[in-house]
Amino acid sequence: MQIDIQSNGLVLTDNLRAYVKRRLQFALGWTLTRRLVVWLSDINGPRGGRDKRCKIQVSLPNGRKTVLIEDTEEDLYAAIDRAAERADRAVSRQLARRRGFTHEKLVTAAPERDNER
User: Which of 33, 38, 86, 25 lies closest to 62, judged by CA?
Assistant: First the structure.
């Protein structure tokens, strides 16, 4: 899986880059995703506040839709964690829709038994 990380308004350290890659491998490593693009940004700059944004774009294989998730938090690592979790759920939903999966298909009727008493 190729992970491209871009930053705007903050320093992209080796530790931060490694954290993002490790977190996304853990969250989305099960998919056949070939490419992820991650944008990390500090919206307000030095003014502070809830302004650290993590945006994740997941390109699904075989011409499927692209999933785009964005999360903003006060802490950049929290934004990365929440965006990774949300991306995992969104990709799962997208793949389930594509397969035509519904929960109703899993429900099987139990064979009726005559009362033997």
Answer: 33
